[in-house]
Specification:
Largest sheet: none
Number of strands: 0
Number of helices: 5
Structural class: mainly alpha
Strand content: under 5%
Number of domains: 1
Distance between the termini: 104 Å
Radius of gyration: 34 Å
Shape: rod-shaped
Mean pLDDT: 79
């Protein structure tokens, strides 16, 4: 409350309410109570529209946040399941098909996880992964060569 009047001080955080109170205070100073009542009744529908608009905005923001969270959690779960499946498959086929094991458990696993979980793709990172996959494939091929028969 203002010390010099009986009208409450306008809140600085709500511009519509403070503007409405300011208008009401000015009308109260220049006219009688009937005109003030008419002015407040004219202001009421505008305040109701603003309130409804803000409530719908909050609902839409909440729904958008829920969808984004659901998408991120789904990506995380799918990425984890695919990664575990690739690792399991790579270990299972390692004895018979070393080249398939290096594809399933190598750098492609990391790049796939980055794309699915983090939703990020970078051309430079793709080149690095391809180079690392080539080197791991070459190393595995050299390790699995049969010794020469003498």
């Amino acid at each position: 409350m203002s010390p010099d009047s009986t009208t409450p001080a306008p809140r600085e955080s709500d511009p519509i309410l403070s503007a409405g109170l300011e208008i009401a205070r000015r009308w109260g100073q220049v006219s009688d109570a009937d005109q003030l009542k008419v002015a407040l009744n004219a202001l009421e529908p505008e305040l109701q529209r603003e309130h409804e608009f803000r409530m719908k905005q909050l609902e839409q923001t909440g729904a958008r946040d829920k969808r984004a969270h659901r998408l991120k959690m789904t990506s995380l779960i799918v990425g984890a399941l695919v990664s575990i499946g690739m690792l399991t498959g790579g270990v299972y086929v390692a004895k018979d098909a070393w080249w398939l094991a290096t594809l399933l458990c190598g750098p492609s696993l990391i790049s796939m996880a980055v794309i699915i979980i983090l939703r990020r793709h970078d051309a430079k990172a793709a080149k690095v992964v391809a180079d690392a996959a080539r080197r791991s494939n070459n190393a595995a091929a050299q390790a699995n060569q049969q010794p020469p028969v003498v």
